[in-house]
Amino acid sequence: MKISNLSRHVGLSFLSLTASATVLYAQSASFAPSVNIFGTTGLIDLPTAESQKDAELSATISKFGGFTRGSFTFQVLPRVSGTFRYAKLDNWNANGEETYDRSFDIRYRVVDEDKYVPALAIGLRDFMGTGIYSSQYIVATKAVHPKLKVTAGLGWGRLSGDKTTSLIDFGQGG
């Protein structure tokens, strides 16, 4: 009886020490790049010019506004990343039916960030797939303070807000 209580306390102590070490590590890692709802490095649904660690693999599932997306992103080289995405779109076509989409993205970081110059990346979203998310972009990201980064960019296709630019015609006319 006493041994089981001792082992439980040792186990709980180990668990709390492990959790504390994880929190400390997360706080000491200065700003690891986040992953957006498309599964790529970015903010919310927009890309940034940051890159994950070399050879890092990310798997995400997101649901927002009738879109459910699952993705795998791999940092192929220090400057190149690729993403495979499979999505379910609720009420997408005129009949209100679900549509399933698969797509592939690629991004290349052209310029690394230094003291005065922001990181600069170019990317193609859904360049191999159905084209529902098809877009192209140029984005720059600069750390202006140890706890503040600024990102700005230009996007075409879906990123420009024009829903007709890159969408497949599902027989809705026009």
Describe this structure in words.
By secondary structure, the protein is of the alpha+beta class. The protein contains 1 helix and 9 strands. It has one helix at residues 2-28; strands at 42-43, 46-47, 57-64, 67-75, 80-89, 99-111, 119-129, 135-145, 148-157. The strands form 2 sheets. A 7-stranded antiparallel sheet has the order 3-4-5-6-7-8-9, with no helix packed on it. A two-stranded antiparallel sheet has the order 1-2. A hairpin with a 5-residue loop joins strand 7 and strand 8 (135-145). The protein is elongated, with a radius of gyration of 21 Å. The model is unreliable at 6-29 and 164-174 (pLDDT under 50).
Largest sheet: 7 strands, antiparallel
Radius of gyration: 21 Å
H/E element string? HEEEEEEEEE
Total number of helices: 1
Low-pLDDT parts are 6-29, 164-174
Query: Mean of residue pLDDT?
Result: 79
Order of strands in the sheet with most strands? 3-4-5-6-7-8-9
Tags for this model:
174 residues; alpha+beta; seven-stranded antiparallel β-sheet; elongated; disordered C terminus
Topology:
Blueprint: H1 2-28, E1 42-43, E2 46-47, E3 57-64, E4 67-75, E5 80-89, E6 99-111, E7 119-129, E8 135-145, E9 148-157
Antiparallel strand pairs: 1-2, 3-4, 4-5, 5-6, 6-7, 7-8, 8-9
